[in-house]
């Protein structure tokens, strides 16, 4: 049974996070600092990607080291269409999501036959396969990446071209994905995923095979990550194979661990903390990871639930 304080935190924390993000454009306007708005947009995009990974990592126990491949697929869908003079967001975004979903369906059907470290390695292999495929696309920049000469368009509105409108679009999609996944996690579907994480044998003894549930969850997470990739391409107006490297997958896992596994708003909190620490520490030294690494270890060891765990620890002390 969840404690009353935990239930209250689960209600208040998302409101605080989304409220703080929603106030960024106002602060950026008052401070006359465009960088803050662009940085907050990057944070919201990465939070969307981390949210998708925490759904399968924290709730289904699927440690995927190839999750960034779906981000790259979404980004390249936008980039390749733009290179062929197709700028409509009503085409590029659904196509990005569909392409990632199909890739996840094929690779997930194979990967989910394995467990543990074998699942980690096979997802890593599929992710690297997508990465090297992107580097071989010489017509679309290859290793150097692909520059977009603008952003996607949507019905002659400034929703993509204007930075403030675009930020609120990303924030709205993040809120929508959060609401959808939260509803799924509280449904019978989510309980099956949680049960399979705890004991697959017990679940099968009840006559429920978790394979199909895991595959659907894997595809859904991939599609949300691809949406983040499509938004990332528009925000940066640049697409690179590095978007789907295993380093990016590792960063997403770190965000989930930092915020708190098994908590959807923990993924958002972890993305915010990771991006802010990266920006702040990289301004101090180029070896910022030497500082960030021990900080992450301390949070994981003493928080036992990431930053959310530290908040609970602070309340109990």
From TrEMBL:
Write out the annotated subcellular location.
Cell membrane
Q: Which CDD domains match?
A: TM_PBP1_LivM_like
TM segment ranges: 12-30, 36-57, 62-81, 87-112, 119-140, 165-181, 211-232, 252-277, 289-311
- State the annotated membrane topology for this chain: Multi-pass membrane protein
Pfam family membership, one:
BPD_transp_2
* Primary location recorded for the protein, binned into one broad class: membrane
Per UniProt, the keywords (alphabetical) are: Cell membrane, Membrane, Transmembrane, Transmembrane helix
Protein name according to UniProt: Branched-chain amino acid ABC transporter permease
Taxon lineage: Bacteria, Pseudomonadati, Pseudomonadota, Alphaproteobacteria, Hyphomicrobiales
